[in-house]
Input
Amino acid sequence: MMSYRPLPIGVDDFRKMIDFIRSLFESALKTNPYLEFAVITNCLRISKESIFTGLNNLEVISILNVDYAEHFGFVEEEVRRMLSFYHRENNMDTMKQWYDGYRFGNTEVYNPWSVIKYTKILVSNADAFPVAA
Output
């Protein structure tokens, strides 16, 4: 059996990583002539203060922001249209019971990963039982 030891990471290594990431984002985002707009997800707010100092016009959007709430999952109409596309409208009540219930801002949304996964199963078996995501 192999044993693992933690890597000896010091302040210099941390600074090198910060410099690398900053350089990467600056070249990929700020000085890229083929890119007009970018969205970066899953970045901690503290990262804005250290890694992104070379960038500007950053906006922190949390799940409490009402302006973008519907973009954190599927709204009910989108789920209905997806099920309709695959002729599985009869599964809407089950979909709602299992995968609805998230609230971002003032918007109720469905878990997108679970909806897609269950819909994929329903395509081949209209009587499939929902699965936990």
Remarks:
- Strands lie at 100-104, 107-110.
